[in-house]
Amino acid sequence: MRRTRNVGILLEKERYWDITDTKDIKLDILETTLLQDKYQGKIQAASKKLNEIQGIKRNVNRRKKQKEKG
Prior knowledge:
The protein is built from three helices and no strands. The chain has 70 residues and is mostly helical.
């Protein structure tokens, strides 16, 4: 999983939001951030394994192509 930078766009609340209280939205963002922080080590380990697996697949595919040409 890759982390990307959060980019916000400011919209006029009265025009674009039919929400009188944004408390729930802020809580959802906070919970998501806390979960990401809590599992960051596991996310990084899984990402590393995925990269290793993709590298192995690339090498296998290269070998297959070399055998087909040879």
